Amino acid sequence: MQPGPVFGNMDKFVGLGVFIDTYPNEEKQQEAQKRRYSPGVQRVFPYISAMVNNGSLSYDHERDGRPTELGGCTAIVRNLHYDTFLVIRYVKRHLTIMMDIDGKHEWRDCIEVPGVRLPRGYYFGTSSITGDLSDNHDVISLKLFELTVERTPEEEKMHRDVFLPSVDNMKLPEMTTPLPPLSGLALFLIVFFSLVFSVFAIVIGIILYNKWQEQSRKRFY
What we know:
It is a single-pass type I membrane protein. It is found in: Membrane. InterPro entries: ConA-like_dom_sf (IPR013320), Intracellular_Lectin-GPT (IPR051136), Lectin_leg (IPR005052). The chain is an alpha+beta fold and 221 residues long. It has 2 domains: 14-167, Sandwich (Jelly Rolls); 182-220. The protein is 24% helix and 22% strand. It contains 3 helices and 9 strands, in the order ββαββββββαβα. The strands form 3 sheets. It has a 3-stranded antiparallel sheet with strand order 2-3-4, with no helix packed on it. Strands 5-6-7 form a 3-stranded antiparallel sheet, with no helix packed on it. The longest helix is centred in the C-terminal third of the chain and has 37 residues, at 184-220.
């Protein structure tokens, strides 16, 4: 856990993020510029969204995470007189997020994304942050359940071989790590063998050229 600008957590995180956003930054900017959303594009806040990151993506606050959003839904959770609930279920690369915000003890679908690949050994955590406007929300409890799932040997191997979060049919930029600098010996060997190869290529070229000239003279006579 490292503090940062993405709802209190670090940017370019590695893992799954589920965000409950209470302020429409993009909409307010559109209003300030005297522009309007089309009906099919506008989102109503508070808004729940999900994002999978392999450490290469930045969360776009100006657009409320729209470019990297896997899915989302409106969740009116302000000023309620009863508890609200959110369930995040991950089974066989299938991510499902549901909510109970009406006080009826009934789950409502919010996000469903197949093909989500999450490695083992990750951690659960919660964070928050505020801007110029303050908002008060309490996390009453966080309950974790390990689901019993039957997998074939092939599915178990595929699950075990996941090393970075990803989503099928969604191209995430690959992480690039800088190469370590070459040592003096390695640099010397590279230069040495490059020179040997160059000399060898020149010698072979001269031999082939002389043979070509000799064959040309024989044809002439």
